[in-house]
Amino acid sequence: MNAETRLGFVAGLGAYFIWGSLPLYIRLMQHIGAADLLAHRVVWSVPTALIFIAIAANWRDVRAAVKWDKLKWLLISGLLIGANWGCYIWAVNAGRTMEASLGYYINPLVNVVFGMIFFSERLRIAQWIAVAIATVGVGILTVAFGRVPWVALFLCMTFACYSLIRKQVAIDSRAGFLMEVLLLVPFAVSWLAWVAGQPDARVFGDGGWDVALLVAAGPITSVPLILFALSARRLKLSTIGMMQYVGPTLQFLIAVLLFREPFGWTHAAAFGFIWTALVVFTTDSVMGEAKARRLARAARVS
């Protein structure tokens, strides 16, 4: 694993860990409306992104992101991630965190398909087996819910399409994220202005700690997305897809152990299938990389 790949792996793991813990923050802010919290996430992500860019002194990429050939794609990715955020906040507050986690379990499978379709990525036999096992697990979870899991499907497709676009847009992750949230800011500010005009307006919740926590929505939102974009440029889409099981697993555990959402034997079986798939895929990937390094060393020696 070279330095760039290692950086992508660590960044991706960090992003998924933060995303997996996000239900704790959303439930803490449950007294704030879903649309209000979404608007704050957008607004406070702007200064956070600017700080990251200033630290890196990377204004050249910001200027590049303003060009239409990149801006048009960032507008689409911004709308996709905004819709994803809004649906996720609503799902957690509606007691459907487990269904939301199902969406992110399905997402890696879609990423694998997208990787084959758009980037001609190939999977080894063991990796195909892993995808098949994971598919069985996702199917069991779907049956366990007893209905079409529209929340899961919406979250899955919006984020898979977002991943696809960000992998193709050759722009620094921080600059790209800044442009995405800037494009969403007019919608967010308009919503907060409308809320402020209502008789019982609570734009900043109950004040005090609510203000600090709403401002914290900026780094909580921007840091994992920047890490993800950094990872997406350095790893194969199929690898990113399988790594994403870390996020929904944390969400799943939070839903069951902390939020006390229903959990039965079918859920346990599905959970076992999905983690088995992750073990198979990861083991095969590590062995494949080790073999590639041995062949590379042998080629240099000869």
UniProtKB/TrEMBL annotation:
Keywords: Cell membrane, Membrane, Transmembrane, Transmembrane helix, Transport
Membrane-spanning intervals of the chain: 7-26, 38-59, 71-91, 103-120, 125-142, 148-165, 177-197, 209-230, 242-259, 265-287
Subcellular localization: Cell membrane
Topology relative to the membrane: Multi-pass membrane protein
Ranges of residues in domain EamA: 7-142
The keyword Calcium is assigned to this record: no
SUPFAM superfamilies: Multidrug resistance efflux transporter EmrE
UniProt key word Flavoprotein: no
One cellular component term from this protein's GO annotations in UniProt: plasma membrane
Family stated for the protein in its record: Belongs to the EamA transporter family.
Name by which UniProt lists this protein: EamA family transporter RarD
Protein's gene: rarD
